[in-house]
Amino acid sequence: MKKIRIFLVVWGFVCLVTPVLSALEYPLMKIATESAMHSIENRFINIDAMAAEDKKSYEFSKSRILGNDKMLKKSAKVRQQVVMFLGVSTSLLCFLGAIYLPYLTRRSS
């Protein structure tokens, strides 16, 4: 029973550390997609000199890139919240299990 309690405590700490480690995987310094698009437009692309067909194609591609970035940010926020919830709730269950394990395994006479 002592081994189970130790396992639950260790696993509880692992579940607390997991959300922190997953948050660290995201880049800390990232240029925003909108800023990158504006930088590319200002330095390398002359939109005024483009043909109408090319300009239409470019605007369509730009809107898709910005739309994908917006949806990625939303999904990343949801994933981060889910990982935090699962990590904290699993950790809480492990700690409670370690505390109440003797009471749960007591044999009734």
Describe the fold and architecture.
With 109 residues, the chain is mainly alpha-helical. It has one domain (1-106). 81% of the residues lie in helices and 0% in strands. It is built from three helices and no strands. The protein has helices at residues 2-24, 33-44, 52-104. Helix 1 (2-24) runs antiparallel to helix 3 (52-104). The two termini are 19 Å apart. 4% of the residues are buried. The model has no long low-confidence stretch (mean pLDDT 82).
The share of residues in helices is: over 70%
Number of separate structural domains: 1
| Helical/strand content category | mainly alpha
Helix and strand string, N-terminal first? HHH
Largest sheet: none
What gross morphology would you assign? Answer: rod-shaped
Q: Can you count the beta strands? A: 0
How far apart are the termini? 19 Å
Please work out how many helical segments DSSP would assign: 3
Taking pLDDT < 50 over at least 5 consecutive residues as the criterion, the unreliable ranges are none
Strand content: under 5%
Mean pLDDT: 82
Gyration radius (Cα, Å) is 25 Å
Keywords: Membrane, Transmembrane, Transmembrane helix
Transmembrane segments: 82-103
Task: Summarize the topology.
Blueprint: H1 2-24, H2 33-44, H3 52-104
What descriptors fit this protein?
single chain; 109 residues; mainly alpha; rod-shaped
